[in-house]
Input
Amino acid sequence: MTDSSPVITLAGVDQIFGGDRGPGTVALENLSFDIGRHEFVAVLGPSGCGKSTLLRLIAGLVLPTRGRIEIYQRKVTEPRDDVGIVFQRPTLLPWFNVAGNVTFPFLYKYGRVSDAEKSRARDLLRLVGLEEFAKAHVDELSGGMQQRAAIARALLLDPDILLMDEPFSALDALTREEMSFELLRIWSERPKTVLFITHSIPEAVLLADRIVVMTPRPGAVREILDVPLPRPRTLDSLSDPRFNALANHIRSHLFTRHAA
Amino acid sequence: MQPDASEGGESRTIPARAGIYATRFAPQLAFAAILVIWEVGCRVFKVPAFLLPTPSMIIAGALQQSVSIWASKTWATVRVALMGYALAIAISIPVAMALASSKALARTFYPMIVVIHSTPIIAIAPIIVVTLGASDLPRVAITFLITFFPIVVSTTTGLMAVPEELIELARSLRNDRGREMLYIRLPYALPYVFSALKISTTLSVVGAVVSEFVAAEHGLGYFIQFSTSFFKINQSFAALVLLVTISLTFFKLVGLVQRVFVPWSLPKSER
Output
């Protein structure tokens, strides 16, 4: 990382649910790590380890029980305009067409859609390969295409930071791999700081600069790994010996009980 | 070989087509069969006309009155039904929005709505007439009371059923609740609203007829009471046929509005 100051900082973050009545459930415990400018960080962990909660904390949708979360050295207290979110499901609105869904963030914030935003939406649909589907109904798109539209929507307000919550987990294996390469292409054309939540080891290794591996219940950082694969990543990256070495390392650690 | 094959295909087509028609018009055929059984049964067993008139007697009875007389009776009933229905929509949807946006409001007023709904409207109809006087007002009020409940319940359910992720999407874009209601909750609830609106079409006709039973000098409901008291059962049946037609037309119209203006709210097969 050339830029020294981190974009996202987590310091001693605990998240406890239902703590006001009894001891509560500890979802996240003592999370501390930084994410640098235009870095692609994957958060990898088994289901129920609080990965999605982590994303919601950084998004400002949930406030942490303890600890500090900062974006650009400012404490996160509410959702920010420079953060885009892609959810697990596409969450497209059937009452708008595809283009209407992409411009939805602007409509929602300002109550109207300007021509500038409409042409931005067209550019974004071209970027995600959906330009012919601008007028299409949401239901006419396949799962992968819907998630592409959701990515275009997340990019509408040109956020510096993109938070992605297992965005490809509902897709079939083939589409999933295709979408990974698509995301890498989009990311190289529009560099962003990305936090990518996933429970797929190959997906994390293929996409990320660094992988934050989490422990199950309560979610804590088990280890943070650098991905030594060169960019741009291609299909060849999948057969790189370093790819398999790292994937195997994570796999052996993820399924053992003792801490690393 | 080939001509044989095409001949075989040809000979299969005709019975197959007959089968398709039989399937398509099965409801109409069944309905016609029931009318025939009714007509024949009444004649064979010599059922007196003042107990159960035959379909042909009903038609004859209908023809005793001019079209304009039937039209004015029908319009009187339709008018009350439409006013009650419109009032129910105008009140129910804002009430549902209020119930959905505040737990305190919902806890306070929902039981009251259930109590109103649990009251047999036919029983309080005469009281409403005394209270509100002899005008359209009591008739519209009675129709409203029968019609509003499904709309409130179904709309509230729809407004509350919005998936958490859609709410988070809205929250991540930071705005006041007004836009969340307008752009997320209300559109999401539309399929629920329309299913209630369809149920309520029939109820609005029931409401109009009940109100005419209690207080009216006009309309199909009044006419049914009037003609039965003179044992002109065939005329009552003719009025009943008109009421069924009104209900069906309302129902179809609401379905049409949904299909034209909010087609996405229908399942894909029905668009």
